[in-house]
Every structure is written in structure tokens, then in C-alpha cells.
Amino acid sequence: MPRSKSKIKTQSSIAALVVGGFVCPVAAEATRTDFNLASAPGIELFVRQVEDVRAQNRRGPVLLLHGARVGGVASFDVDVGEVSLAEDLAEVGHTVYIADLRGYGRSDFPASMTVDRFASPPAVPTAVAVEDVKAVLDEISARHANEPIGAMGWATGSHWLAATEAAHPGSIDNLVFYNSVYGGGGEWRLTENFAVPGAPATFNYEKFGAYRLSDTQSLVGRWTEAEGISEAFVNRYVELAMEGDATAAEREPAAFRHPSGPIADTLKAVHEGPLYDAGVIRANVLILRSENDFWSRPADVETMARDLSNAGDVTLKRLPGASHYVHLEPGEGRDRFFRIVTDYLDDGHLDDPSGSDGAKR
């Protein structure tokens, strides 16, 4: 059976206190309302709505979707250091939704993550993730009738969004594909970390099982020396990453569970080919990649741009000098990232896509 979770209130002094759907502003510009949404039988998804009713311009709804390890609040709404992407998007007029897929953050775990790690296949493969994403998009559509829906995923989050749009064309209007693997093109630098030796497309199930474990060091080890990242921010990021797993503190060192299915699918995609048909996607698509990203590859940008034959606008944009975590790193790189993303989510086009770091297809 899925685990039971108690709702965890937002801690930020700039946030709103939410109790049972009742929003009590605390000298806030943005208010946060948390709710649960049914997906598959027995699976409740956590969703947070972030809105600024005082924003001068009203823009369409935007879904922000986490990647393969950390849930949505840690990914997009850390309340330390003024780097909440959700709050920034709300301030320019979007109604923002942050969702946790099953097995992540504050959403229910699937049954395969509540038993021995080696009792079930890798948890939450792409097809299962698509089921959850579609449930969230349907809810957003019902709340915002006739408004264009924007969406951005971080790494695997973009893979899930694109796979959902491919399975249900027209579900997303403006899609930002951010630091994500698409498929084909050969080598992936993380293959040896996750694959069976000598079989690069095969996930090392005997090592990891249905779900993996991440402790603090593995979570932030490649990131803590980035400019502008404070100790207070890192501590809060780790706390938010851990909080969804009630068993995290029982391990030494403390570690939280997250599904293996996304990694197994990524290995298949990079070594065998894409896991969905980008040719049926109808959304406008911005393919956004950080120059120093360790997850995605230039080949993913090239092959996806080639395959988006029925999409609306397709724009490629490179972020010079930026890392995988650029949306969480204060400074010029994040400012550039935000300008590009808000420009595209506004109407599915960039005002100025030209330049050495960007191009139209």
C-alpha cells in the first residue's frame, strides 16, 4: 500500500500559511496553496499552487516538474536565498503549479517502493510518470479553461513532459525542455555509474534495485562550491529533499528513497533511441541547455530539434558557462535563464532567438 504522509507547511517567512486549503497571507507577495490530486488508484499526488494576486500582468498557468531524484519543492521553491523559481514566475503574473510524481517529495510512494528494493522492477518508468503528469495537466486545464498551458521540467522532468505531450498531443502549449536527455547519439558520461558493465543500455538492477538512496553528500557533492550558494541554502535544500521520506532518518547516514525507473529509461534512450515519438508533439518547444550540464548532451538538442516535425515554434538556446543547477544559482547566469524562460512561456516564442547561443530550427 502507498505510504501515508502528513502535510508539511511551508516554512518561509515570505510564504503563505496553508491549512486545509485556507490561505493565510503572512506579509507575502506570493501565496502558496497545497493540495492533493488523485492519479492511479491508491496514488495521491502532491501539488503546490503559487500565485501573486498583485502581479501587474496576468499570464497563463505554468507547471514545473522535478527531475529523477529530488521532489518539486526542493527543485523550484526553496525558501532561502531568493532563488524560488516558482515565486519569481508568480511575480511576473503566472499561476505556478509544482507537482510531485509518485515516489517523489510529498506524493505517495508506489507499492514497489515500500518493500524490499529487489522485490520489484525499477519503480516509476516513463509510462507510469506520464499517467501522473497527465492527471496534473488535466487539473490545471480544468482550473484555467481556454488558457494556454506552459510547462518546464528539470532534466528528467522535461523528458516526462515531452513524453506526455507525445502521448496526448495538445496537452501542453509552450514547453521548455531544460537540460534533458532525449535519445540517440551514443555516449553518456553517467553510463558507467548506472549500467551493467559491458551492457551500456542495461540498468544495473543488482546494484540499485527498484529504488535508489541518496544521502546529503551524494545530493550536493558536485554543487556546493558554486558561486553564491550559501550554507543556509544547501541545508534547506537537503531538508526539503529528505522530508518526503519518513524513513530517511532511520538510515546512517540519513538517506531518502527515489525511483530507479527514470535512470533505467535514460540508459535506454541514450544508447538505443528516444522512448517517445517527438514527431507527434504539437507544442511550441524551447530546447534549453546549460553549456556545462553533466546530464544532457549536445546530441540531445540536435536530435530532438530534428524530430520535432509537427511542433509549433522550435527554438534552441544555449546558456554559456551555466551548470545543471543554473536556476538555483544566484547571479548573472540565473538572470539570463529567467529572462529566456519567461519570454518563451509568455507566448511560445523568443523575442530575440538569434545570437551565438541560440537559434531557430
Automatic annotation (TrEMBL):
AB hydrolase-1 domain boundaries: 61-329
Pfam families the record matches: Abhydrolase_1
UniProt keyword annotations, A-Z: Hydrolase
MF terms in GO: hydrolase activity
Gene3D superfamilies: alpha/beta hydrolase (3.40.50.1820)
Domain of life of the native organism: Bacteria
Entry keyword annotation includes Transmembrane: no
PANTHER family: HYDROLASE ALPHA/BETA FOLD FAMILY, PIMELOYL-[ACYL-CARRIER PROTEIN] METHYL ESTER ESTERASE
Protein name according to UniProt: Alpha/beta fold hydrolase
Species for this entry: Denitrobaculum tricleocarpae
